Amino acid sequence: MTPLRREIASCRLCAEHLPAGTRPIVQFSDTARLLIIGQAPGAKVHESGIPWDDASGDRLREWTGLDKAAMYDENRVALVPMGFCYPGKASGGDRPPRRECAPHWHDRVLATLPRERLTLLVGTYAQAHYLPAMRKLPMTERVRLWRECLPGAIPLPHPAWRSAIWMKQNPWFAEDILPELRRRVSVIIM
Ligand code: SF4
Questions:
Q1: pLDDT (tens digit, 9 = 90+) per residue, 56-77?
Q2: E-strand spans in 73-159?
Q3: Is the model's pLDDT at 113 over the cut of 90?
Q4: Bridge partners of 37?
Q5: Does the pLDDT value for residue 34 go beyond 90?
Q6: Whose CA is nearest to atom 4 of ligand 1?
Q7: Scanning 16, 98, 142, 182, which has the fewest C-beta atoms within 10 Å of its C-beta?
Q8: Angle (deg, nearest 10), helices 178-188 and 55-64
Q9: Is the link from the previous residue into 151 a cis peptide, with omega within 30 of 0?
Q10: Which residues surround ligand 1 with Cβ inside 6 Å?
Q11: For the chain, how many structural domains are there in total?
Q12: How many C-beta neighbours within 10 Å does residue 2 have?
């Protein structure tokens, strides 16, 4: 384990706000050219310790064309959520990622990755942080403007169950974006 990983594993910066306790779940290496920045682990991922080990992960793999072997290959794929620990339940879903986490850790983690990489900004929290010029737009508009974020990044909706309804309302996502997303992902992880 690298010193940075050891430091993250022992982080207790916002422990007092985490009802299930600290368990940072993050994957990265200095060769991972695909970076996926999601929201925060859910309860199932908190239990298993495996990122995207849930229905949202299945949908994200379907969108990207990644299989589990590729997604969990840290030499090719970095999985760095906006909050590394499960933030606990709120009414109607999980709490948002802890706001301390990304400002505290992301610069150091991203500095270890190759400079030439593709970043998937999955969900509103990642997009608000990394696409400040688009922060005020609704999520659907940010995704619709995905070409403006190329070549470095692609904004995606969070692949929670609600995204199935969203996809029906926005068929251009499956028609225009997913084929190009799969193509770019397959090239970057080669
Ligand atoms: S959520 Fe992030 S900042 Fe908070 S304890 Fe976990 S790793 Fe540390």
A1: 999 999 999 999 999 999 999 9
A2: 77-79, 89-90, 93-94, 118-122, 153-156
A3: yes
A4: 121
A5: yes
A6: 14
A7: 16
A8: 90
A9: yes
A10: 11-15, 22, 24, 83-85, 98, 100-101, 104
A11: 1
A12: 11
